[in-house]
Amino acid sequence: MIEARGLEKRFGAHAALRGVDLRIAEGELFALIGPDGAGKTTFFRLVAGLLTPTAGTLRRAEGATFGLVPQRFSLYEDLTVDENLDLRARLYSVPSAEARARAAELLRRVGMAPFGARLAGALSGGMKQKLALVAALLTKPRLLLLDEPTTGVDPVSRREFWLVLNELHHEGLTIVVSTPYMDEAEYATRLGFLDEGKLLAVGTRDEVLAAFPRPILEVLSPDRNGVRRRLAGIDAVDDVSLFGTRLHLRGAAGTGTEILDSVRAGLTGLVPADGVRLVPPTLEDVFVLAGDEVET
Question: What is the CATH number of the domain that holds 203?
Fold first, then answer.
């Protein structure tokens, strides 16, 4: 469906994308994960044909129509929900009877059937994104592109939005979505980490986690500041992050389970032995490591 080879995009001296190689097959739900400024929006604009590459190639399957949900709401806020959808249908030459029937079904599906007469500008953030999704689907595209569609949306609306995407994917729609949220990436069939324009750690969730090269330890202690001070003197510990009420430690490459003994010894008298344990990495651990080790 989409194939990028050596894809680069520069804006003056700034490289937004640097040598991206990526193939997304038809029927996938692919999640592109990365922080602000990673190059996600640039990638979507290239796929949509709004930008041209500086170098490399980007190919979209011939005849693959697409719908785009941009990061910022781009429909008319002074038109109602129904008026926005009617306008889009006319712009894309969708027959009026077909457009009305499809709009009604899509609005029902996303829980917005009662709001056809409401001005788009009066919708909540989550409802605006649902409207943008309905507009993108109105033309029956084969490919759906979503650029951080749930940023700034409340958790309940985020979950509802992703449940709809998951249903669409299981119906055969190819979906490419960018997100800064690790929990959303769990829905994807494959994912890739983008940072500073470079694509890192591409694969299924299990493949990405299996390839993680560092041991992760979890420390449970009410004295987190004291633990941090002790850990600062342990060479095998690369990084310490707060995960809720627990601390996650990232070990140096190749240390294996030996770090467990080192940390337990270093925290003697402060944390009991069973308060330190090895845990499997999360997507957030992978993303942090990928970001730290990206080549510049």
Answer: 3.40.50.300
